[in-house]
Write a structure and sequence with these properties.
By secondary structure, this protein is of the alpha/beta class. The protein contains 21 helices and 14 strands. A hairpin with a 5-residue loop joins strand 13 and strand 14. The termini are far apart.
Length: 432
Amino acid sequence: MSDDSKSKQQTESITTRDRGASRRDFLKTSLAAGLGAAGILGAVPPGVRTAAYAAGSDAPEKPEVKIGFIPLTDCASVVIASEMGFDKKYGIKITPSKEASWAAVRDKLVNGELDASHVLYGLIYGVQLGIGGPKKDMAVLMGLNHNGQAITLSNQLKEKGATDGAKLKALIGKEKREYTFAQTFPTGTHAMELYYWLATYGINPISDVKTIVVPPPQMVANMRVGNMDGFCVGEPWGARAIYDKIGFTATTTQEIWKDHPEKVLGTTLEFTQKYPNTTRAMMAAVLEASKFIDATANRAKVAQIIASKSYVNAPEEVILGRFMGNYDNGNGKSWKDPNYMKFYNDGFVNFPHLSDGMWFLTQHKRWGLLKEDPDYLAVAKQVNQLELYKQAAALAKVKVPANPMRTSKLMDGVVWDGKDPKAYANSFKVKV
């Protein structure tokens, strides 16, 4: 080796040692100052951090995470992230934890028994504002699915001709009695979807009928014994009511709002701040699972996995039909629905649009759960973790929409775009 080559090699060696020493000094100083991992991370510019995540240089602070789920078809991405080993790709182990009710999920998230959960969008916002549970700062990390829920009415209503919203309204006006409808959580997705559907037909869900809370897996059993006239819940329980010949689908939720936000991956804000690398790894693993599920060729395999007793505990064929977009409403109509349950849709499903979170707040205000109008946009910006999502999406190579707001037209022709949430919340004729 020439003297010049030796000199160059020595210089590079010294430079490398200096860089390592500088990094060690920085870490020691930061830790001594009490910054911790999250504080150190905050000292690095966001653009540099994103590049570092993409390079895989940030190891998860917590290598094992416990993620809650309720037995529903849309828990699939959490289950598949674990079952198919997408979690290992990002240096973590996901343990899915089957929970009994959304109230149990709420409590376990708030007290730290669960690290994160497959959870109702509106539940996270309710806890954030102290309605439907104790007040705590929460985080929506990403969407898990669009579409794929249903409003089921009993066969007793069908026998009386109440086969859609308008005919149900007529029956309620004609035959005076207490009509009971079930949803799964007071501030949750199913409650807001059920209320929106009823109100569109002039039925006030607060004053004209009785609404009760029933955990999703118990819906069919409660309808079977006559405890309710109808319910709104995620699949496969709408399909199961038809399978068991006790009810029929009056409407799917995608007919109420095409590509509506549904379940999210949620946690506490505290968890994201304490374990930022773990949070990103968890999100990236679930994003990979979401891609896998949305490939039609994989859906039969996914249905088989989630049908087991460990997860949804329902007949595989009951899950698979609507999972593939093959609908039968139990009242003589069958169709192929292009707006079936989506888990990825080129990343559109997973991006936590601010306007989606704001919509739930407008409905909470509409139905008296919120007494005053909150700062809709400020709350959504605090809860929906856009920056974390972008970083996780970079890890999983997922496209990120440019606009954090989106525009939708719901079943009544009313457009929601998030531009004037206060006016929107107070514009409905049927409300508290």
